[in-house]
């Protein structure tokens, strides 16, 4: 296969000879900055081999692949652009991770164990994770992005990455490894950009900020002991994250929403808003839900991303409004206003301040509850499980000595199971909060669907130190399949 498989540590590693040879090729290319079509094709083929085990690395080959189509002769010498060289620098990191070893638990198809859900609008962004930690930021009124609907695709991506990063940090703090994080959002462009940025043209306002955020996401995922998957969440099911993304009357004069925030007409602090969520919408939040400030490293990343985006928007707007000066014309009557970039301090809400006696209208709360009538986790996990249920068996089952009719028992066309959909209506009762217990309490989702052939490939090989505790919290996953 071209890989070293360690069945004791359950890791997959790039062989040393390949690692050193490919690393040297990239270092040479970064020094010379010039190459030929044949040489670049060879490098792309080798890096594509690594991309099989680091999925987030795949969209950093798109620029190099596009360059192949612009070269006519295989012997023609050409120079790589700065962005293409930046992609190659990132591949040095990916090669190192492939050599260190990728856990097999992060390379298999399995049910997500953590949820990271977020949302944004041109006035702010926010999100929360299944452990209960929540966050929110506002877009300063002086920002180029404030109230600009064209910026929302980027803001949705930024919100997803921040929430995923929070989930990773929380898992590490609790000593959890090989967690499978499900990133949820209601923007299809942002979800697609998590894995693929080839559709982002270099001459658009999205190019620099989107690639900056995507590169950072790839680094934090490959540096962690966890894996990532994503899924679209309909906006009507994303009530809490939506309420975290704006306040008061931000949207009143905007085509984006056109409605006031039912819980924040008095601009409450994070602690006060946390209490209101627990009081008026407890069924839509985790038991330990709490809005807090972002850690320093994440806050610094958000500030950098916002400043890159604002700079990109500024250049784009100036290019659109640029006019030529006619002969004898004195030019503009006023000097250009100096741009003010967002800082983290200008984006944060106060953590604590005296609480008010505001009580939202019962009609507003009833309307929020009516937007999400089904169990929260049922709504966000059922589509993921349904998608797994139609995966061909041959993708994750392999022949193990059992032959029926002279053929392996797996099929390239037969679906994994046809019984999953019948179980989606059952209430989910298993908590995401892990505590020490016997590993026998763990059962995969497929045990409940009577698909023993699938569970035989996913059962644990050694005792686990965590188990699932029954709970009625709406942000819980049922019967989470643990790493092998």
Tell me about this structure.
The chain is of the alpha+beta class. The protein has 3 domains: 103 residues, no CATH class; 225 residues, Nucleotidyltransferase, domain 5; 95 residues, no CATH class. The chain has 16 helices and 15 strands. The strands form 5 sheets. The chain has a 6-stranded mixed beta sheet with strand order 10-9-6-7-8-11, with helices on both faces. A hairpin with a 2-residue loop joins β12 and β13. The two termini are 22 Å apart. The C terminus is likely disordered.
Structural key phrases:
Nucleotidyltransferase, domain 5; 3-stranded antiparallel β-sheet; 6-stranded mixed β-sheet; alpha+beta; 484 residues; disordered C terminus; 3 domains; globular
What is the overall pLDDT average?
A: 77
Number of domains: 3
CATH architecture level-2 label of the largest domain: 2-Layer Sandwich
CATH class category label of the largest domain: Alpha Beta
Number of helices, where a helix is a run of at least 4 consecutive DSSP H or I residues: 16
Strand content: 5-15%
Brief account:
By secondary structure, the protein is α+β, with helices and mostly antiparallel strands. It has helices at 16-32, 37-51, 62-68, 82-100, 152-173, 188-193, 207-223, 239-244, 270-280, 296-321, 344-347, 362-370, 376-389, 420-423, 445-448, 452-458; strands spanning 4-6, 11-13, 34-36, 77-79, 102-103, 114-121, 124-129, 133-138, 180-185, 227-232, 290-291, 403-404, 407-408, 430-435, 467-470. It is 39% helix and 13% strand.
């Amino acid at each position: 296969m071209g890989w070293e498989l360690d069945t004791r540590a359950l890791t997959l590693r790039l062989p040393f000879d390949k690692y050193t040879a490919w690393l040297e090729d990239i270092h040479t290319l970064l020094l010379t900055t010039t190459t030929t079509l044949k040489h670049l094709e060879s490098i792309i083929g080798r890096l594509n081999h690594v991309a099989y085990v680091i999925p987030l690395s795949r969209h950093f080959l798109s620029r190099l692949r596009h360059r192949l189509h612009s070269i006519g002769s295989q012997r023609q010498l050409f120079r790589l652009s700065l962005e293409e060289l930046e992609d190659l620098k990132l591949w040095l990191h990916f090669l190192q991770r492939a050599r260190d070893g990728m856990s097999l638990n992060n390379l298999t198809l399995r049910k997500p164990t953590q949820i990271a859900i977020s949302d944004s609008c041109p006035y702010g962004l926010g999100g929360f994770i299944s452990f209960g930690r929540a966050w929110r930021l506002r877009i300063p009124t002086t920002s180029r992005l404030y109230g600009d609907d064209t910026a929302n695709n980027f803001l949705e991506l930024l919100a997803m990455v921040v929430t995923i990063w929070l989930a990773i940090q929380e898992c590490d703090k609790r000593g959890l490894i090989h967690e499978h994080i499900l990133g949820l959002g209601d923007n299809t462009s942002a979800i697609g950009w998590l894995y693929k940025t080839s559709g982002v043209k270099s001459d658009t306002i999205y190019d620099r900020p989107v690639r900056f955020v995507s590169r950072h996401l790839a680094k934090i995922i490959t540096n962690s002991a966890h894996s990532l998957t994503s899924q679209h969440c309909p906006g009507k099911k994303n009530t809490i994250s939506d309420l975290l993304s704006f306040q008061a009357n931000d949207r009143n004069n905007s085509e984006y929403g056109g409605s006031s925030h039912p819980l924040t007409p008095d601009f409450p602090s994070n602690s006060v808003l946390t209490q209101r969520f627990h009081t008026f919408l407890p069924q839509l939040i985790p038991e330990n839900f709490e809005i807090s400030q972002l850690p320093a490293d994440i806050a610094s990343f958000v500030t950098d991303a916002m400043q890159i985006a604002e700079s990109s928007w500024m250049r784009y707007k100036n290019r659109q409004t640029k006019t030529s000066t006619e002969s004898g014309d004195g030019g503009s009557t006023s000097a250009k206003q100096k741009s003010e970039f967002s800082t983290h301090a200008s984006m944060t809400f106060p953590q604590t301040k005296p609480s008010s006696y505001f009580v939202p209208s019962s009609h507003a709360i009833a309307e929020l509850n009516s937007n999400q009538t089904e169990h929260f986790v049922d709504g966000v996990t059922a589509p993921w499980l349904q998608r797994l249920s139609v995966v061909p068996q041959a993708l994750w089952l392999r022949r193990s000595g059992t032959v029926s009719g002279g053929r392996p028992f797996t099929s390239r066309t037969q679906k994994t199971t046809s019984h999953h959909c019948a179980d989606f209506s059952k209430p989910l009762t298993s908590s995401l909060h892990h505590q020490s217990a016997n590993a026998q309490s763990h059962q995969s989702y497929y045990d409940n669907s009577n698909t023993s052939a699938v569970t035989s490939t996913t059962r644990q090989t050694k005792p686990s130190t965590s188990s699932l505790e029954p709970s009625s919290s709406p942000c819980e996953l049922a019967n989470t399949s643990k790493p092998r």
